Amino acid sequence: MQQVMNITKALADETRVRLLLALEGREVCVCQLIELVDMAPSTVSKHLSLLRMAGLIEGRKEGRWMHYRHAGDDAPSVVREALTWVRAAL
Question: Please, are residues 77 and 41 in contact by the beta-carbon 8 Å criterion?
Fold first, then answer.
């Protein structure tokens, strides 16, 4: 139940959906996401944190920067279904 609530919370914000769509099919550095949405780094980090808590994205650190991508095939089915729904809806 909590995972479903985290996913719906993550998808309830336009900026988070934009960030999620920007990760479609690739890994992106947080520095590029900051420029894309034209927001403060701390704000973008908070949005990404919520997407990560929901399990929708994964991150890895490389040097100073974090790089994000969609959750992999090993993600729970509810996460994979949510990502599929977002792709189809938008």
Answer: no
